[in-house]
Amino acid sequence: MSAPAATGTSTRTGRGLWWLSPAGLLGVLIPTTVLLTGLLSDAVFRLQYRTPKSVTTETLLLVAVACLVLAGAATLAAGLARGGGTPLLLDRGVRPQLRSAARVLFWATVVGYTAFYVAGFARGLRPAQVLEILISQDNYGVSLRDYFGGVPGLTTLTQCGIAFVVVATYVLRREHDRRLAAQVVVVLLLTLLRSYVNNERLALIEVAIPAIVVLAMTARNDRRRSRRVAARFGPLALAPLLFLLFAVFEYSRSWQYFESRTDLSFLEFMVVRFAGYYATAYNNGQLQLLYADFPGRLPRDSLQAFWEAPVIAQLGLYDRLSAPVPTASDSILEQFGNPEFNNPGGVTTPFVDFGPVGGLLFMAVLGAVLGLLYRRFVDGEVVGALLYPVAFTGLLDLPRYLYWTQGRVTPALAGLLAVAYVIVRAERRERSRAAAHRRSLGQRVVAPTGGSPG
């Protein structure tokens, strides 16, 4: 391994990748999914998704306007952001703090997954059940979630895998480290198994996407032309890759069951199913707007991480402070939708919680934060470089749910903020020592050498 370079020299450049920016991604994702949802008829909703089409043109326009506000605020914040700050990467070598952070995050993740799987077997899960699902590839209607209930303070550490992969990817982009590469493979395999047996596809997505984002951004100025081209045209590979991942998981989750109950081919079924996750999310957002807002209701999903935080969740603080849920607002999907497609719709969530004006303000503030992080990410500044790859996952899933406010992402963000703090503190300490050394040299140069006055 090469030795770390001295502080102060960064590899930052000002140009990013259009598809990694909030405006660039939303400019493709939102019009496509909104238009698709608008074109699907009520008959298609009932036939393919077993739910009536409730979403209106007005709500789809609200989604478009809200995302336009978010993208505009992000673009404005990115343009006004000033440069500077501590660079994450140096011209030569890797900061020792990054290597140390990777080790800590890896073992934290391993502890979390050990607790996760041990808890499952302790609650009665048999290896034969897991093998049966893996061999039969039939996971529809089969839920092992009850076995994998959380162990307070331990299973939460599985989410440190997100932070680990971000840090490890930066390190591996600079130096060859077989042990670290093997650790990345271990985390990916642990996550893959969890996402499969626990029907938790998001667990794999939220680990893989940040790594892809880091690889793309660090490759945009690579010496190899092939890597620069790959980074620039990343969506051409990323979109089919996501669809392929979806199809692989959906094969066992639904196709094995519906194969004998549909006239569609496998590819047609997967396309319809994939579109359905977005279309029904907008549809569910409409249902939330109609039935989830009632007098005395406190904002919930937009502040989910707060309400699900330790102690607050144990105290049941939300249920104590918020008004009781009316009958019409209880089990909305069971009454008006299809629980199988349970994505609540991320864009409409702030409007359910805060109303029309509050929802737009929420999106504007969110856009400003994302824009600032993106600018710092492009510049290679430590906080943006560490946090934005995780934030990008939320942009990708915004039509389906509000990822950033879920409690599951809190451990990853906390871990990355801790890494950023350690790096910034070490950088400042090094600069202070360097400044003190320069002052010491200066005093020696100007020290008087003559004799005493006569």
TrEMBL record:
<feature type="transmembrane region" description="Helical">
    <location>
        <begin position="17"/>
        <end position="40"/>
    </location>
</feature>
<feature type="transmembrane region" description="Helical">
    <location>
        <begin position="354"/>
        <end position="374"/>
    </location>
</feature>
<feature type="transmembrane region" description="Helical">
    <location>
        <begin position="231"/>
        <end position="249"/>
    </location>
</feature>
<feature type="transmembrane region" description="Helical">
    <location>
        <begin position="147"/>
        <end position="172"/>
    </location>
</feature>
<protein>
    <submittedName>
        <fullName>Oligosaccharide repeat unit polymerase</fullName>
    </submittedName>
</protein>
<feature type="transmembrane region" description="Helical">
    <location>
        <begin position="386"/>
        <end position="403"/>
    </location>
</feature>
<keyword id="KW-1133">Transmembrane helix</keyword>
<keyword id="KW-0812">Transmembrane</keyword>
<keyword id="KW-0472">Membrane</keyword>
<feature type="transmembrane region" description="Helical">
    <location>
        <begin position="409"/>
        <end position="426"/>
    </location>
</feature>
<feature type="transmembrane region" description="Helical">
    <location>
        <begin position="102"/>
        <end position="122"/>
    </location>
</feature>
<feature type="transmembrane region" description="Helical">
    <location>
        <begin position="60"/>
        <end position="81"/>
    </location>
</feature>
